[in-house]
Amino acid sequence: MAKLSSWGNYPLIEAKEFYTHEFEPLSDYIQSTETFIPRGNGRSYGDSALNGKVASMLGFNRILNFDVVRGELTAEAGVLFSDLLEVLVPKGFFLPVTPGTKFITLGGAIASNVHGKNHHKEGAFSNFVLELGLMTAQGQYIICSPTNHSDIFRQTIGGMGLTGVILWVRFRLKKIQSSYIKQVNHKAKNLGELLSLFESCNSSTYSVAWIDCQKGGKDLGRSILILGEHADLDELETTDQRNFPLKSHSNKHVSVPFHFPSGMLNRWTVSIFNHLYFHKEFQSSRSFLAHYDPFFYPLDKILHWNRIYGKKGFLQYQFVIPFEAGAEGLELILQKISASGFASFLAVLKTFGPSTSLESDISFPQKGYTLALDFPVSSGIFELLDELDQLVLNFGGRVYLTKDARMSPETFQKMYPLGFPTQPKFSSLQSQRLKLHI
Amino acid sequence: MKTALILGSNSDVGIASAHRFAKEGFDIYLATRNVNQSQKNLANDLAIRYQISCETFQFDALDTEVHPQFVENLPLIPDVVISVFGVLGDQEQASRNFKEAARVVNTNFLGNVSILGLFAEKFEAIGSGSIICISSVAGERGRKSNYIYGSSKAALTCYLSGLRAELSSFGVHVATVIPGFIKTKMIGDMQTPAPLTALPEEVGEAVYKAFSKKKSVIYVRGIWWLIMLIIKLIPENIFKKLNF
Ligand SMILES: Cc1cc2nc3c(=O)[nH]c(=O)nc-3n(C[C@H](O)[C@H](O)[C@H](O)COP(=O)(O)OP(=O)(O)OC[C@H]3O[C@@H](n4cnc5c(N)ncnc54)[C@H](O)[C@@H]3O)c2cc1C
Ligand SMILES: NC(=O)c1ccc[n+]([C@@H]2O[C@H](COP(=O)([O-])OP(=O)(O)OC[C@H]3O[C@@H](n4cnc5c(N)ncnc54)[C@H](OP(=O)(O)O)[C@@H]3O)[C@@H](O)[C@H]2O)c1
User: Which residues in chain A have Cβ-Cβ distances shorter than 8 Å to B42?
Assistant: First the structure.
């Protein structure tokens, strides 16, 4: 038994973690263990990768095939995106979809059906999955794809680890000419301005906005919209870029060595934002070439940045609401947050395109605006989030399970009305809390 | 192209060492008693990640009869031989049941004497080569909780020191890597103090450092050197009463 938590450091539980890199012991474990949850790199925020018993998949981290002709990769589920990038980028390929950290596993990407800054254009990870190997509750090994065991294939993508243990995945890659991104930052004075910027820029491959949540009134929604396109060879600027156009990320980072007193956070994040927003040369927009690492993974430079929230941990709240509810919904929610005094200092806004028939009934993305906020755990925060749930529901939206640690089963049922009846073998604290097991 | 052979490549330490050498461009021979799917996947992975070539071989340390054949069957004489295999055994069983004790000693000590002796002969003949072998702090003083394992490692450390002395004049390098605790399946759920417990990757790094810096003896997590120095200084009549 040891202490275990995921990225939000909440909840912190006692758990027994099983680890192997071999198939037989894993298969034996699955058959002999009454109930457990598979776990990747613990970058989900809440309790979806937690249970008294967890099976770490990090030992299954082998790349099995890299087909540069077809642009496809097959790898075991425990491989980290950071490792994949080191192999893919020098050969002129990129992950088709990537979240805001590269320290997740391929299995975690499937189980949460992760999205990136390109969902509005290219969809979620599900759009790129060709087939996968799964170990089911009976310890049976099956290969599933859109044509083979198609239902379990679909329910596994975004299925939060509840359909079985994903062993390996074959998926399509994106071709790139360089590892650089043409980045454009736009300032928006308020929410209205931001949403119209989003709309006029919706042909951009990558887009995301950072909103300063401390601003209210006419400044509500003061933000920076960040857009990006992969740069072609002839768009590179410096000799270094031209000499090493396909350089992958460096592994240098600093680390937050211990849990900070909670107050520290405020100053830290706000100063980053202000630094950007008030950047001297930055009038209303600014363009430059950025390496993919700072563009996609700005927070990865600081290992264990989650410790900045203090020992009690934090909750991330991410929801999506349809575009129709857009301006009004976001405004109401942002106002509610700033009025509550539980200032989330920064919020991240992205847009989603339509969902597809290739993802599970509890997969998160649906067409609309998606907003993510961090809240340090403190008394009163759970009540606030319950109220936000109601607003989100009223606007026809839903909450992302991979970030959740506190939603009620009733809310869940309304947000995901198709339900997700699963057997108890694969079960997390979250699936138990949400009453997913009959 | 240089080649590194890993004996006991299914251990986390073996895997970490394979990654470390492949990263430097070495071709890798993985040798393990059971060439299973995960070894084959590892071979694929190393080849794809580092653009090297990687092959798997069946090797059982206890099957000393076939060791000469194993060495002859390798496509090339490797430049570096990394010996990682070992068994902890069950002390309680091993101290009362000779069969278990023999298994531990035959694997950790005689298995190495047999296979490393064969490579020593090859290396001596060509006047180059490196042998890196993992021993253990357990071999520095016999403790009641694991002295069968400990004595097999003590013998191994002693053997390596002699082998090093013999081969150094032939331009052959022998390194003894001495870890304290490593977080691997060998110690399983055993709770060990975090500051004294190395990750397999650190041991892989130490193995590579032992090779590249031509070290004779290297402790993994340097503090262990001091700890063992102190432990060795405790007088026997006090030591025998200590409960560890
Ligand atoms: C800084 C940061 C930024 C993020 N940005 C985004 C973002 O932009 N978009 C986004 O979509 N997400 C984002 N996330 C969330 C993250 O991408 C997901 O939570 C992802 O699933 C984490 O992967 P993991 O390997 O750490 O999985 P874990 O957190 O260990 O597990 C997550 C879920 O996957 C399941 N699982 C993991 N491996 C397997 C397997 N082999 N078989 C079956 N089930 C498995 C677990 O049971 C659990 O339900 C972000 C997280 C962080 C910390
Ligand atoms: N873990 C520690 O705390 C610790 C501390 C100090 C030193 N060490 C030493 O570090 C080395 C690596 O051990 P580890 O911790 O990584 O443990 P491990 O995972 O148990 O590795 C030992 C490896 O030796 C292999 N092996 C056992 N008997 C064999 C035989 N007869 N022939 C061929 N291979 C055999 C095993 O093969 P299978 O995979 O097929 O079982 C296994 O892969 C060992 O020499 C160990 O003594 C470990």
Answer: 62
User: Could you tell me which residues come within 8 angstroms of residue A233 by beta carbon, excluding any fewer than 6 positions away?
Assistant: A177, A178, A242, A245
pLDDT value for B176: 98
Active site residues of B: 149
pTM, rounded to two decimals: 0.95
In a domain, A29, yes or no: no
How far away, in angstroms, is B133 Cα from ligand 2 center?
12
The distance of Cα B186 from the centroid of its chain, to the nearest Å, equals 13
Helix, coil or strand: residue A69: coil
Q: What is the pLDDT of residue A91?
A: 97
* pLDDT < 50 stretches in chain A: none
Query: What's the full length of chain A, in residues?
Result: 438
Q: What is the CATH number for A191? A: 3.30.70.2520
Tally of domains within chain A = 1
Q: Is residue A117 part of a domain?
A: no
Question: Which pLDDT does position A310 carry in this prediction?
Answer: 83
- In a domain, residue A156? The reply is no
Nearest CA in chain A to B11: A21
Q: Give the closest of B37, B45, B189 to A63, CB-based.
A: B45
Distance B189 CA to ligand 1 centre (A): 26
**A221: which residues sit within 8 A by CB, 6+ positions away?**
A188, A190, A191, A192, A193, A194, A211, A215, A330, A331, A334
B232 in contact with A, Cβ within 8 Å: no
Establish if A267 belongs to a structural domain.
yes
Interface test with B, best of A22, A23, A56, A168 (most B CBs within 10 A): A22
pLDDT at position A180: 98
Which residue of A16, A19, A23 is in closest CB contact with B38? A23
Q: Is the CB of A41 under 6 A from ligand 1?
A: yes
Cβ A77 vs Cβ A115: under 8 Å? no
Contacts of B41 in chain A (CB under 8 A): 62, 64, 76
Q: Does B38 touch chain A (CB under 8 A)?
A: yes
Ligand 1 lined by A431 (C-beta under 6 Å):
no
In which element (H, E) is residue A225 found? strand A223-230
Domains of chain B: 3-239 (3.40.50.720)
Task: Give me the domain span that covers residue A205.
Answer: 180-406
- pLDDT the model gives residue B5: 98
